[in-house]
């Protein structure tokens, strides 16, 4: 008698998928990364929401993520105010967003990612952001987003997910981060938009 086939739980499937997709994007060459960023930036420039936005949250790319530095430079050139996430020092699992300029003093957080030094005078309430570009590990055909599992952006975008108010969330990813169907948990809420080098994905 054959052993019954092992069926992974959603959590196990999500963990394995994170590993696979992170390996794929880390394997991209420097040239592939450069071309991907150029194409993604072109798509971002086509978004009407970008043209009307004043306060835009982004993040500094790491771990093979789509390079956000040229996107940030473009926003600065357009006179946009750019904000980066900072891990909240007192509210576990939450983010603060701090104004980012070429002169901003930086520090390294517990995940070895550069973030602005905490300065309350440069913090913006999430409700005053116009757009939040979110990192992700994978996304699917319905706009579901798989992050690193910390839930930081789920909490940040809670009002949008519940009421449709607040900053517009836009995922950023390489094309290789698309999967047809993600193993979804009950708390997962789809993004309304994801930008990749090859396409602008929209969901209503």
UniProtKB/TrEMBL annotation:
One of its GO terms (biological process) is folic acid-containing compound biosynthetic process. Its cofactor is Mg(2+). Keywords: ATP-binding, Ligase, Magnesium, Metal-binding, Nucleotide-binding. Substrate binds at residues 60, 65. ATP binds at residues 14-18, 145-153. Its EC number is 6.3.3.2. It is an enzyme of class 6 (ligase). GO terms for molecular function: 5-formyltetrahydrofolate cyclo-ligase activity; ATP binding; metal ion binding. Transmembrane segments: none annotated. It holds the Pfam family 5-FTHF_cyc-lig. Coiled coil: none annotated. It catalyses: (6S)-5-formyl-5,6,7,8-tetrahydrofolate + ATP = (6R)-5,10-methenyltetrahydrofolate + ADP + phosphate. Gene3D superfamilies: NagB/RpiA/CoA transferase-like. Belongs to the 5-formyltetrahydrofolate cyclo-ligase family. This is 5-formyltetrahydrofolate cyclo-ligase. It comes from Vibrio albus.
């Amino acid at each position: 008698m054959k052993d019954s086939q092992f069926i992974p739980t959603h959590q196990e499937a999500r963990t394995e998928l994170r590993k696979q997709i992170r390996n794929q994007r880390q394997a991209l060459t420097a040239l592939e990364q450069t071309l991907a960023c150029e194409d993604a930036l072109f798509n971002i420039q086509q978004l009407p929401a970008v043209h009307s936005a004043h306060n835009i949250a982004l993040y500094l790319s790491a771990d093979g993520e789509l390079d956000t530095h040229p996107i940030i430079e473009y926003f600065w050139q357009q006179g946009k105010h750019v904000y980066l996430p900072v891990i909240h020092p007192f509210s576990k699992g939450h983010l603060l967003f701090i104004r980012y300029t070429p002169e901003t003093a930086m520090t390294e957080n517990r995940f070895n990612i550069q973030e602005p030094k905490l300065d309350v005078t440069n913090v913006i309430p999430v409700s005053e952001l116009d757009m939040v570009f979110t990192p992700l590990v994978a996304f699917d055909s319905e706009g579901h987003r798989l992050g690193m599992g910390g839930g930081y952006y789920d909490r940040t975008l809670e009002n949008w997910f519940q009421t449709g108010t607040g900053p517009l969330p836009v995922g950023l990813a390489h094309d290789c981060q698309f999967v047809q169907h993600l193993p979804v948990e009950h708390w997962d809420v789809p993004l309304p938009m994801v930008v990749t080098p090859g396409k602008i994905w929209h969901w209503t």
